[in-house]
Each structure stands twice: as C-alpha cells, then as structure tokens.
Amino acid sequence: MRTVLLASLRTHTRRYGAALLAVVVGVVFIVVTAALSSAVRDGLVAGIDEPYAGADAVVEKPTADEAATLLAAAGEEGADAWLVGWTMQPVVRGDDVVDTSADVGQVPAAADRRWQDLEEGRFPSAPGEALADVNAAKAAGIRVGDELRIGSGADALEVEVVGLADSPSAFSSASVYVLWEDLSRWRDSLYVSSVAWAGGGDHDAAAAAVRDHVPDAELMTVDAFVQHVQKEVNNEVDVIAVVVLLFTVIALLVAVLVINNTFAILFAQRTRDFALLRCVGASRRQLVRSVRWESLALGATAAVLGTGLGLGLGHGLVGLVRAQWPGARMGHADVGAGWLLAAAAVGIGVTLVAAWLPTRRVVRVSPLAALRPDDSTSPRTGAGRRRVALGLLTVAAGVAGLVAAVATGGYPVLMAGGAATFLGVLVLGPVLVPALVRAAGPVTGRLLGPAGRLASGNAVRNPRRTAATAASLLIGVTLTTAVLSGMASSRSAVSEAMDRQHPVDMAVTGAGTVPADLVRRVAAVDGVAATAPVRGTTARVAGIGETPVLAAPALTDPDVRAVVHGDELPAPGDGRVLLPWDELGDRIAVGDRVTVAAGGRELTLRVAGGEGWGTAALVSPATLARLDRDAGLQAVWVRAADGADPEDLAGSLEAIAGPVEAELENGLAQRSYVDLQLDVVTGGVVGLLGIAVLIALVGIANTLGLSVLERGREHALLRALGLTRRQLRRMLAAEAVLLSVVATVLGSVLGIAFAWTAVQAVVEPAVAGAGLVLPWGQLALVVATSAVAGLLAAVLPSRRAARVAPAAGLALD
Amino acid sequence: MGPSGSGKSTLMHCLAGLDQPTGGTVTVAGRRLEGLSDDELTRFRRDHLGFVFQAFNLLPMLTAEQNIWLPTELAGRRRGGRADERSDLRARFDQVVDTLGLRDRLRHRPAELSGGQQQRVAIARALVGGPAIVFADEPTGNLDSAASAEVLAFLRRSVRELGQTVVMVTHELDAAAHADDVVVLADGRVTDHLTEPTHDRLVTALGARAA
C-alpha cells in the first residue's frame, strides 16, 4: 500500500493545495498571535522596576493629597520620596497647541533618584524647567530650549525644555516631566500610581516612617510591587491573546469545512481508483489506512509550513513595529516551544478531524464500482427528512433561546441560542442553500442568458457540496454582519450617552468677565459651527475656592439650541448649584449646602453634580442675578462643524482663550476618542474575521476548481454544442458569484437577526431606548465584496476549464 | 468505418470543427474551417452542426427537453430571433420528438432514462436546430443490440424522412451497413470507399485490409 500512498500523494498534490492553504493560514494565525503577544508582554514588562531603584518601600495608588504629604514629609525626615503619576494638561508652544491633553509627570529632584534615561540636554534643576519625552518630542517637533505653556487658566505654567529623556517602562512614561514644585499645582487632577520612599535603610523602617504620615497606606516592597504590576500586565495581555485566539478558532472551524469538502470531493472523484484497488486485493482496512495517512501527511505538511511561516511573519511584524515606531514599546518576540507544538498539533488535528467522515465513506466503496461507468457527476439526492427535522428542531430551540435571552437579558442564554440557531441553519444548509440558489437563478438567467441558467443548475446539482461551500463563507459573513450592526447600534446608544456627558463640543470659560468681542472672534474660527454666549461671575465657593459661576443657559434660546447636543441640558433650580463631578469629593458631596460668595453678597446653595461645561459652577439665571447684579459675559459655548479636527479646533480656540485668561473644555476630543475606540474595535474584529472569510473564499475557489476537473467532459460537450469560451468562463464565474452572494445574503440576514437580539438582550437594559441601527453602507460593502471575491475565486478554475479544446475534453478519461 | 486506432474519431473531430487539422483543409457547408478562431468555430458548430457522442451525451442536471433545446438556446435562437423562426423551431422540435418517440420522456433527467433513450434524446438534440450535418461518433458503442438497432433505425429515418445528412463514425459492421456511403480507414489512411454497401462487401473491405 505504501507505493499507492506515495503515488497518490504525488498525483494529487496540486488538488490538495487549497486545503493545505486553509490549514496553513490557521496555524500561521496562532503562531503570529503568540509572537505578537510575547513581544507586547516583553515590551510592557521591561523596565517596570527601574523607577523604583533604591527605594525601600512603595505606596500603591495613594491619593494625590497623601502623595503630597509623603513628598513633603520625606524632606523633613532626610529621606527621599518621589512619585509616578500623571495629570492631563494642554501644552502650548507660542500660539501653537502641541497637545490638548498631554500627560505631565514628575522628575525627581535628587540626582540619584532620577529614573528617566536622559538622551539630550540635562535634567531640570529648578522650577520652570521641564524634561520632555523623546518620542513625544519627536512627534510634536519639540527641541531642547523650546518654551512651553502647560495647563490653562490660573494654573498655567511656563517652562523651558532643558532635556529629552526616554522612559524605561510604559508604566512610568509621561510626555513631559517637571519638578514636584511645579507639578503640585495640579494636585486636584493628579493621578498617582505609586510613591517610592527611600530612607531608613530597610523596608520595615521605611514602612514605619510612611505610616507615621499616611496611616492607611498600601505598602509593599519594591520586588512585591514590581511582581504585582507584572502580573497585571500578564493578565491583560493574556486576555487579549485569548480574544484573538477565539478568532483563530473561528478561522479553523472554517478551515475544517474547507478541508472536509476537499476530501469529500477528491474521494468522490477517486471512487473508481479505490474500487480498482479493492478489485486487485486491497482490504478495506488497508484502503482506509492509506487515505488517513494521506490526510496526516497533508496536516503535517501544513503544520510545518504554518509554524515556519508564522515564526517568520511574527518576528518580521515585531521587527517592523520596533523599527518604525520606536515609541510603541514592542519587546522581543519569543514564541515558546509549547506554542509551536500546540499550533502544529492543532493544524494536524484539524486536518484529521476534517478528513475523518470522508475517509469513512471510502470504506463503503464496493469493488464493483470500478467496473461501472463513472457516475460521479450524476446528481445525488440531497437531504433526508431526518436532516430537515433535526435542522428545524435545532433552529426552533435556538430561536426559543434567543427569545428567552431578550426577555431575561441573560448572556449565556443568548450565546447558546445564537449558536443553536446557527447550527440549525448549517444542518438545513443542503435544503436551504439550493432553494435560495434556485430562487436567485432567474436573475442570473436574465442577466447572463443560457450561461447564467446553466450556472444556477450547476450550483445546485450537488446540494451537500454546495451547502458545505456556502457554510464556510456563511460563518464569516454572519459574524461580520452581526459585529457591524451591533457596533453601529452601540455607537448610536453611546452617542446618546455622550450627548448627556458632553452637551457642548467646546467651552471657553473665563476666570473673570471676558471681552464682549470674544463671541465674535470665536465664531470666526474655522471649524466652529455655532456659538452661544453664557453670562456669569466669579465667586468663592466654600471648600473649592475661586471659581466661575455661570447662569445655566436655557434650551429654548435658539443660540443655545444650536450649540447643544441632544435634548437635555442640566438646569439647576433656584437655590441650587451644579458643580462638576471632578470638583466634588471628600470636601463637598451632592446634597450638601455650600456658601457661595461674590462681591460681598453670600448665598447658601444646595449642591448637585453634573459635567460637560468645563470647570465652572452652574446656577439658575435668577440665582446669578442675586449673586451679582452686573454679571457679564464669562463663557462662550461652541458647537464644532461636522468633521472638525478636535486638536486643530482646540488649538485655534486656545490661541484666543489664552490671552484673556480663559480655560478651554474640550468635549469634542472625548467624543472623537470614544468614536476612535469604537472604530478600532470594529476594525480589529472585522479584520480578524476577515481571515475566516479569506479561508472561505479559498474554499469556494477550491470547490469550483475541483468541480471543474470533475466536469471536464461536460464542458467539452457544451463547447461542442456551441458554448463559446467566454460563455463557459461566464458560466463558472456566475456559479461562484451565485454561491457567494447567496451565502452572504443568508449570512447578513442571520447576522442582523443576531445583532438585533443582542441589542435587545444586552444593550437595551444598559442604555434605555437603544435600538438596532443598520449600517447600510457597510452591509452593502460586505455583499459587494463577497460577490467580487466570488468572481475572483472563479478566475483560475474557469481559465483552466476554458483552455481545454472540445476534442481534447471529449477524450478525457 | 475502421478498427480502433484507425483515426476515425480524429477525422471526425477535424471535420466537425472540434479540433484543428495540422495540415490540409476542411470545408463544411461551403465554409473553410481551418484558420477560424475558436469563437468562430464555436458559432459555426452551434449554427450548422449536430452531435451525437458515444457517452456523456447529455447534461445530467437538465431534463430531456432542456437537453434537446440546449444548442438552440446557446445560440440564442430559442428565446431571441423572430417569431416565425421560433415557431419553425417549435414545429421541428415537435416533429423530431414525435419521430423519436420521446414525447412522454421529456420531463425526465438523463439518469432516469435507459441508454437507448439517452441516445435518442441526443439525436433529437442534434436534429432540432436543422443542422447541415449531424456527426455521430460511435452512437451505438454503449448499447445492447436491440437498442443499437433502434438508434440506427432512427438515424436512418432522419435521413430518409427529414432529409438530414448524417456522418457516423463506427467500427461495427452492422452500423456501417445502414449507411449509403462508407469510407473505410486504417492506420490513418483511406483504404476503401463503398456506396450502398452490403454486409458482405463490408466484410470483404475490412478483410482485405486485414490480409
């Protein structure tokens, strides 16, 4: 049998090409995931300990006030303390806004505590000097000697960049570092990830010293802290890797269908060979063993190719990222032997599983089949009644699950219901897909004439094969459509939430009354669609200090209506004051009564929370009039034009706001950031699903290619009877397009249905009134893409088929 | 006629525009075939020729009726064209189907027909377009003697009653005996040419070559 096996492998190698490709893509996917996640992990973990070198204790996540206390105490006790933390502030150079929200961190004053790696210039030694991150500086074009203004309003700080430095770790990196004397002015908005304490010589002494000042500090040794952070990093990377591997599983599932179909078709074509082998004395067992070895050889080849290609691609990608984006903190790729073995095992396993059923069918070949005329092209019966019943039952169970999920909002029920429905549709495939193809048949007939009519006949002649081919594409398309529709729906739900959180795109709020022509100047800025003037005064709010107090505008004012997103605007009643959530905290809580004083008048108002208009308090117009009878223009609210760049617009407005001591609130940046995140998630998911779709298209090309081989004589007959080469090519292309479009339309319908149930079950309870929003453009693109891809899949097989001369085709064996 | 390997099928492929000769000329119905492009040949075949092959004559997914209409459909004559042409075609279809006794088989697929019935469908298909010549390549090769006789009789009737020219390739004496004109081939050369041959003369012609 070995001679037979080897000869068969030699002869059929080319026909296994597509199946091989499908497995290889899956294996490559696994190995590349492993390479990228190892490099990301390496990059993130590297240098975590360096900022804490020489420290005796680390305080984890203290409040900004606690951190300030510790830094002050260290000076008194002759110890050293420094913090790793950030505040987000706008950075301006001259009239040019470098960054509307840059992270500003601390550079320790003591020379031996500076953990930043200096690359150019020197470390700051006095207030008013700053160290810039070398990557951030490169991106923004900042050089040593540049004068920057950090922050806005009263807290703005003028600094000179005296040096450029790199951070040893992603967890301590900031864009600009200043001394604590300068940084402490933003204590209110400072997030502190950790404070390092050096002094006392050992951990216990240091811990005792820290506890003296901050009794409930979360204290750790440096080693414990570093391990703790590393563990968190590992967990995060693991979660991402698992998510990506989930898509690998989907891709491999599609690969199973493609391989299964390949084997089924190849074995059907080789029925006579098998029968002949049985005639000359091969036992069933020998035959099965021979074809199983064949599939093993295929799987092993794919595993070797896949791991090799995956390693090359993974290392190449990591190297590319490191070379192109040095700031991306990509470490070195290190794919462990375990990963390689697992990837190879998965490749081989998938192949064997996919080949199992078709090889079983080989056993049933009777020796007599060799003597009968070849009937592999005659139509086979499609689905039995049992299959239809089973399919309908599964779909019914699945739909019941989905309905239950909508009613209860249960996540597991939703998943199970969706999976069951999809499985049922797959089981019904041999009935459903041909029926749909037949329904679409008249359209192709009208468009392409006889070639189109023949194509729709060809597409349904082997229902199982058709269904299996369509199923592979169905998986990818259903998931893609579901994700696109789900994302569009979430986006619209999120956008409503954003309307509430950021009712205005930008708010320019003065520290005092601003010049009356500010409104006109703001309105003249490119990218501003509408403006609304807001009156106010400056008042002392007990527990907060000097703060602008604005009269809450009313939505009935057409100017305000044109500026505000959504239909809601916080409207404080008389005797109430709305304070931004950021200002509320330990000292003031919602429901408290606070005194608000302006120009000698004093009022006691009840506190409520809100956000979206910047750092100002909102009161009713009547309350404002009681505080300050002469309240003037204090703020301008801005609606950005559609598509305006938040950074550019903020830069232009900052240039106007800066000279009049006004602060800029940038809600548009938040809005576009959320949009960007949704775009990234959608793009990422669709990209990952794209691999499954790619494998499915290889499968369509493969089925068509193998069917073309099988139908050689038929094509020759058609050519003899008057089908031109072009008609033949068109016929095969139409068959592929019919298949892919039917699979895509079915997939889209399923995907939209799943998205609808998911929105009802998961999004609706979270965001009331959220409904299904269909991204028609994207859905049309999916259908068009798969039609074009079907056309492409037909190119090679149809060219090969058309090349055969009719006489040569008739003489085919 | 001639034995296996004598070049009968190759000659027929060249005559029918299925293959291009390496030398010499082919003229069918006044048209020179050598030098025509593939598309021109294809169009010539579907407009002027009919074919009956030994096996794989019919498309498995089409019914007998659809198979019969196939060449005219490919040529766009069945659905396109003038109304009177379409009614002519229809009349010829009815005549051919009745002559071949296929009326009650039209809705069957090839797998549901016997070998003889399949060949009759193929003959109907070849005749329906009113071709200049019908080429039949071993049309009885896969049939038992009763079915063979039936198919040969039908071919004969189409010549007599429909005035159809039929060129048949065969290695069977009985089949050749149905012809008006027999060219005997051996090893790629013409060895004899008989008109209105009897069985005995055919045996002699083949025997002379064998001797």
How does this model look, in words?
The complex is a heterodimer of chains A (813) and B (211). Chain A is of the alpha+beta class. Among the domains of chain A are: 1-50 and 222-376, no CATH class; 62-217, no CATH class; 512-660, no CATH class. Chain A contains 23 helices and 19 strands. In chain A, a hairpin with a 6-residue loop joins strand 6 and strand 7 (157-166). The radius of gyration of chain A is 34 Å and the shape is elongated. With 211 residues, chain B is an alpha/beta fold. Chain B has a single domain (8-210), classed as Rossmann fold. Chain B has helices at residues 8-15, 38-48, 64-74, 83-100, 115-128, 145-162, 173-176, 199-210, and strands at 27-28, 31-32, 49-52, 133-137, 165-169, 181-186, 189-195. In chain B, strands 3-4-5 form a three-stranded parallel sheet, sandwiched between helices. In chain B, strands 1-2 form a two-stranded antiparallel sheet. Chain B has a two-stranded antiparallel ribbon with strand order 6-7. Classes of the chains: A alpha+beta (813), B alpha/beta (211). Chains A and B meet through helix 13, helix 20, helix 21 and helix 23 of A and helix 2 and helix 3 of B.
Query: CATH homologous superfamily name of chain B?
Result: P-loop containing nucleotide triphosphate hydrolases
Structural class of chain B: alpha/beta
Total number of helices of chain B: 8
Pair with the most extensive interface?
A-B, 32 and 32 residues
Any idea of the CATH topology of chain B? Rossmann fold
How many domains make up the coordinates of chain B?
A: 1
Using the coordinates above, name the CATH class of chain B: Alpha Beta
State the CATH architecture of chain B.
3-Layer(aba) Sandwich
Helix percentage of chain A = 55-70%
Which residues of chain A sit in consecutive blocks of at least 5 with pLDDT less than 50? 374-382
Number of helices of chain A: 23
Helix content of chain B: 40-55%
What letter string, H or E per element, gives the SSE order of chain B? HEEHEHHHEHEHEEH
pLDDT under 50 segments of chain B (min length 5)?
Answer: none
Biggest sheet strand line-up of chain B: 3-4-5
Number of beta strands of chain B? 7
Based on CA inertia axes, which overall geometry of chain A fits? elongated
